[in-house]
Amino acid sequence: MSDTVTIRGADGADYAYTLNRVLDSLIQTLMAGRFDAAVTLYAQIREDVAFQLIGRTQGNVELFRLVANLLFQARDYQRAGYCCEQLDEPGKAAALYERADDFAAAAQMYATTGDSAKAAEMFEKAGSLVDAAKLHLHLHGQQGGVDHAVRAAMCFEKAGRLLDAAMAWENADRMEKALSLYHAIDDDSHEKKHAKRQIMGLEARLGLTRAPGALTAEIGAVDVDDLATGGDGPGGGAGHRVTMMEGFESLRQLPLFVDVSLTDLKSIYHLCDVVDVPAGARLIEAGQPSPALWVLLTAVVAVRGAGGRDVARLAAGAPVGDMGLFDDAAAGVDVVVVQPGRTLRLQKAGFSNLMAANDALALRIHRVLFRTMRDRLRSTTDRYLAGPSS
Questions:
Q1: What is the pLDDT of residue 342?
Q2: CB-based contacts of 231: which residues, under 8 Å, 6+ apart?
Q3: What is the CATH number that goes with domain 248-376?
Q4: CA 339 to CA 278: how far, in whole Å?
Q5: Which of 199, 234, 247, 341 could form a disulfide with 298 if both were Cys (CB 3.0 to 4.6 A apart)?
Q6: Does domain 4-115 have CATH number 1.25.40?
């Protein structure tokens, strides 16, 4: 680096100073307790002097902490994270690296603190999908449940590790998805032998039939109406039975997912549960954030405002709590089941993890949100400009 640095003055002109003079000035200003002035001075320097400043002060712990805080206040989060790492404060370092979008460094720091869930999230964002998947499997073994098994499966699948992904989908109790991936493993792969054993076991558990002597069979031509009524259809008895995804069409029709590809939509579906809800159940409670998106399949709900007055009734195909997927704002209404039935439930936590790991999917959904908010704002503006109706 040059021994001269450039600082823009209050008059808008650029002034050249020697590096040593600038570093000395920064240090003296910090030691004199003029912290805000030091931050302003550092932010005005055109050249990158962070590591020279760090090198000058690292031997003095008190001064080094001031430098770390200076870098943070100047929004130089990556260098501030480095200082916290050197000060043996991995939790702070992790948060700062994450804020600087240095996800690989953040993952290492979160792992050091023992926060495996955040480390896995950061590994995903950094593109280290196998590392993320292994951490999710570790968490699944510790905590049980299916969320981390699903995350592991999705990471392995995205990384092209089909056998590992299929086994993780089995851990998540998504047997049909596991079976499809076992079948997708290339016949020339050394993993195919193991996959065949898993296929046989899964087909037996799922009650699938196979033609004698064949590992797989072509699905016969099946009429859509026949599938809907549960019949075997022409030629169906000789091949696989197929599992239809209950509620998938209702999910696909939601405006929120209008730009989502079939592959990504199936990934969202695999995070969902089909839930029977009884009459009187509260899907959303006023004053509390919504924890999930509910898609009504056969249930009917009432939307109730202040005083328990019914504002609206929603039936099959309607979404409930969709905006709650994106923020923690308290709901303004109660949503109560008035006719028991089936629903498709997408938990906010799983959806948030998927969005964090899939930037392209997140961008598509946020574009839809933007268009929705834009249209609502324009409609409100048009009504305001039109004035009160006569």
A1: 93
A2: none
A3: 2.60.120.10
A4: 7
A5: 341
A6: yes
